[in-house]
Amino acid sequence: MYDVAIIGGGVIGGSIARELSRFQLDTVLLEACAEVGFGTTKTNSGIIHPGHHSSPDTLKGQLVVRGNQLYDSLHQELNFGFRRIGEIVVAQSREDLPILEQLKKQGEEKGVPGLEMWDKARLQREEPNLSHTLLAALYAPSAGVINPYEFVFALLENAIANGVVLKVNSPVTKIEKREKILLLQTPGETLSARFVLNCAGVFSDKISQLVGLEDFTIHPRKGEEYMLDKRLKGLVRRLVFPVPKASTKGTLIIPTFDGTIMVGPTAEDTEDRYDASTTYEGSDRVFQFVNKICPSITERDTITEFAGLRAVSSTNDFIIGPTRVPGFINVAGIQSPGLTSAPAIAEYVRDILIEEGLLLEEKESFNPFVASPPRFAMLGLEKQRELIEKNSLFAKVACRCELVTEAEIHDAIDHGARTLDGIKFRSRAGMGRCQGGFCSIRCMDILAERLNQSFTDLSKRGSNSWIVTEMVNEQHPKMREG
Ligand SMILES: Cc1cc2nc3c(=O)[nH]c(=O)nc-3n(C[C@H](O)[C@H](O)[C@H](O)COP(=O)(O)OP(=O)(O)OC[C@H]3O[C@@H](n4cnc5c(N)ncnc54)[C@H](O)[C@@H]3O)c2cc1C
């Protein structure tokens, strides 16, 4: 019997799990996928928004500024990739200018720090590679970029270290109401909990229906993103936004935490909750638009592309709160800026649980820190030599594009990677120009050896994403070692 069961191991479930791990509670997190963070959380723009884009009349507009502020202390404690690089919203026409003023006013009323209007001359000085046809910009220094998957891995690692139980490959298929408790069924077991938090992203309406609630529906909105070659590093220094539209913040230029430039996302409604496809139309739209703002960006620089689904709810806002079913709490419809708001959502949900009667006693033993994973490529020669002296696997490079060593692949597995994507998102092996063309096989060798599995057991991201279906030469891995 758990005090709290969290359904969904994205950034929302992860943030709540970590917040609850401060208290003397029995908490379990049930995740359908093979690893945490494999839903919308790993397929977004990775922006920590300042908060001036969303209206204060919405819950998302209320939580976003607090969420942004909490990232500094979280970063110090959990050591994920995060940097405040600032953002500019650019005016392409005279009609855009009053919208910039309006955004500035809205931001100031919401407490967004440091907002500044830049005229054309200042904009050209600060970002010389943007189009000289742009008229002005609104600058927000508190905008940041983050590696969202690293954040969720660190949240869960810390939550687990502080007592939370994580069960992956555990899709909740049935929920039964009993007096004062809820029974949750997964393919492997049945669990009971006093409180159930529905953090299931694009499936949160389906989870709600499991307890007989039909109050809202989720309408996925797909966003395609295009990652560009590292040769463009430094082309723009800040996040670049057009003036926003009703359904989207528009197509953006995103200098990622790791120094690549990403462009996107699109915004297309879809019925398919598994749609991760990118399209010619999406690519055309993104590059035609971005090219007007930054003429030297072209689609020829694309090294990879992906798509994610925003969990847009029928209320077009976050749906967070208790329901008619005692103990069942929705944390649903967490569309953008959900990544930014996640730490504030965790506090908000903690307070709801207190109001609903959960006693929270702080744990003296709570340790807020997670050690950062080794990042060989980021170190100077002296430090690299020191690491190699301690562990010779640091001298074996697995991924040449990103300079990731075998020691880092082992470290990723030590910290929970069970799939090829799990290794990639923890170590960066496979994220460079060749996109895993060279290193995938070495990562698979190590993963197979460490998990005592054959190649045919390994998957890219769990469920049916098999990489090898049949071994033609069973000795293949051994032969390569020889
Ligand atoms: C293209 C795009 C760009 C975005 N950019 C930004 C941005 O820059 N900044 C920002 O703040 N926000 C951004 N967002 C929004 C942000 O990504 C989301 O708000 C956030 O990731 C939502 O997290 P989540 O935990 O609710 O959902 P998810 O990450 O989808 O997690 C839900 C989890 O629930 C699991 N699950 C589902 N059903 C079950 C079940 N039956 N049993 C157990 N587990 C289940 C899923 O497997 C999944 O892991 C963007 C979104 C998209 C699509």
Describe this structure in words.
This protein is of the alpha+beta class and 482 residues long. The chain folds into three domains: 2-41 and 149-217 and 315-355, FAD/NAD(P)-binding domain, CATH 3.50.50; 83-143 and 219-311, D-Amino Acid Oxidase, Chain A, domain 2 (2-Layer Sandwich); 376-481. 31% of the residues lie in helices and 22% in strands. The protein contains 13 helices and 22 strands. The strands form five sheets. Strands 1, 2, 9, 10, 11, 12, 19 and 20 form an eight-stranded mixed β-sheet that branches. Strands 13, 15, 16, 17 and 18 form a five-stranded antiparallel β-sheet that branches. A hairpin with a 5-residue loop joins β19 and β20 (328-332). Mean pLDDT is 95; it is low at 478-482. Bound molecules: flavin-adenine dinucleotide (FAD). Flavin-adenine dinucleotide binds at residues 7-13, 30-33, 38-41, 43-47, 49, 171-172, 199-201, 203, 207, 223, 225, 265, 308-310, 334-340. Flavin-adenine dinucleotide is lined by residues 7-13, 30-33, 38-41, 43-47, 49, 171-172, 199-201, 203, 207, 223, 225, 265, 308-310, 334-340.
Helix content: 25-40%
Low-confidence stretches: 478-482
Strand content: 15-25%
In round numbers, the mean pLDDT is: 95
Number of helices: 13
Q: Compute the number of structural domains.
A: 3
Present as ligands are: flavin-adenine dinucleotide
Stated plainly, the CATH topology of the largest domain is called: D-Amino Acid Oxidase, Chain A, domain 2
**CATH classification class of the largest domain:** Alpha Beta
CATH architecture name of the largest domain: 2-Layer Sandwich
Structural class: alpha+beta
